[in-house]
UniProtKB/TrEMBL annotation:
Gene3D superfamilies, A to Z: Methylmalonyl-CoA mutase
InterPro entries xref list: Cbl-dep_enz_cat, MeMalonylCoA_mutase_a/b_cat
Domain spans labelled Methylmalonyl-CoA mutase alpha/beta chain catalytic: 138-381
Full protein name: Methylmalonyl-CoA mutase family protein
SUPFAM superfamilies, alphabetized: Cobalamin (vitamin B12)-dependent enzymes
Matching PANTHER family: METHYLMALONYL-COA MUTASE, LARGE SUBUNIT, METHYLMALONYL-COA MUTASE, MITOCHONDRIAL-RELATED
Length: 387
């Protein structure tokens, strides 16, 4: 059967099964991103080239613990640990970054955000100090906070580009290959795969404006947004899917936040890390360069997200840039409006969380006003409304 026959045949079959001619209004799937999702795909208008990543294999990153030294290749470090040669280290502490003197063969990356969202500024002293280090990637652009605060996918990527532009304007285009992007991966499986792929497209487009041809280094971590204090096992399932999205989307490094929201144990940290091991060694999805390439659905939403993200970036730039709009409270308000809309969907049950708004264990409810503030970008979990 040829491609031209596929869609009419499918439509006839579905019309018969749904007993209506108007199948598209029945099958329409709403989303808060403003992305047009079709119920059936038999082609893609503009096939994308393979989207590369910086690292050949996705780094599986664990929080440092002595017992993991022999088995784990990449660590997040909050305090100084001697003799970690041959390991990839993601530094997560300002004081530690100041003391580290990397040996040449070591691979050090900074996860310290150089932007201060509260004062709407870049920490110039910190940037200069980090650039003076022999780190592979020394300047972190953190948009994980924005995802956890409820920003839309296109808002996260538009902000990432706008933050990059601020850094280029202050430190020159040579900073581009010193950047590492810390991104939180939410629970919308295919959209999150498309998010990382779209980011590669728009970041490359921005780099070309400066005569470069760069792709972003992506450090992806599991979201806090959809996690709940009760039903920890559901948190594990959610974060496993998020890790899969990150690996399939082409992240260069992945990290699992602890699935126990309100506490941390040695056992829970080990299990959180082992989620990555299962995905990498049982499913072998951390070695592919662009596993989603060729999927009509993912290709289509990738391109839509890329277009919306770029449009927002242009809008931010024309209005004065990220820091200027942060000072005016405009960025905070944009994120707030989307976050509140999302929370309403949770409240109404359009977004379902087992054990929270579906089969809830407790009858507790906070208002949206108690949870959100339009003047502040702060992480809020959906489940906090019911906890």
């Amino acid at each position: 059967m040829s491609n031209t026959d596929t869609l009419p045949n499918w439509e006839k079959l579905v019309q018969k099964q749904l007993k209506t001619e108007d199948i598209y209004s029945v099958l329409k799937k709403e989303n808060l991103e403003g992305i047009n999702v079709k119920p059936f795909y038999d082609s893609v208008q503009k096939p994308l080239v393979n989207l590369p990543k910086v690292e050949e294999n996705t780094h599986l990153v664990a929080k440092y613990h002595e017992s993991l030294e022999d088995d784990v290749f990449a660590f997040i470090l909050d305090q100084n640990v001697e003799n970690l040669e041959q390991k990839t280290i993601f530094v997560n502490n300002v004081d530690l970054a100041g003391h580290i003197r990397p040996k040449e063969e070591d691979q050090y990356f900074s996860l310290i955000d150089v932007f201060d969202e509260k004062t709407a500024s870049i920490n110039d002293q910190l940037v200069k100090e980090l650039l003076s280090k022999e780190f592979k990637r020394s300047i972190c652009v953190d948009i994980s906070l924005h995802q956890n605060a409820g920003a839309a996918i296109y808002q996260q990527l538009g902000i990432a580009l706008a933050k990059t532009k601020e850094l280029i304007e202050m430190y020159g285009s040579e900073i581009v290959n010193k950047l590492i992007f810390r991104i939180a991966i939410g629970g919308n499986y295919f959209f999150e795969i498309a998010k990382l792929r779209a980011f590669k497209i728009v970041f490359n487009q921005l780099s070309k404006e400066y005569g470069l041809d760069e792709i972003p280094y992506i450090f992806a971590e599991t979201s806090l947004r959809n996690k709940a204090v009760s039903d920890n096992e559901n948190n594990l399932i959610r974060s496993t899917l998020e890790l899969a999205s990150a690996m399939i989307g082409g992240a260069d490094a992945v990290f699992s936040n602890n699935y126990l929201v309100d506490r941390s144990t040695e056992n829970s940290e080990e299990i959180s890390f082992k989620q990555q091991i299962v995905l990498a060694y049982e499913s072998i999805i951390n070695v592919f360069e662009d596993a989603a390439n060729g999927s009509y659905y993912v290709e289509d939403i990738t391109q839509q997200i890329a277009e919306k993200s770029w449009a927002l970036f242009v809008e931010i730039e024309e209005a004065g840039g990220y820091l200027e709009l942060l000072k005016q409270g405009i960025i905070q308000k944009k994120i707030f409006e989307h976050a509140v809309e999302e929370q309403k969907w949770v409240e109404e049950g359009k977004i379902k969380l087992i054990g929270v708004n579906l089969y809830p264990k407790l009858d507790v409810k906070k208002t949206i006003e108690q949870l959100y503030n339009e003047k502040e970008i702060k992480a809020v979990r959906w489940a906090e409304m019911f906890e």
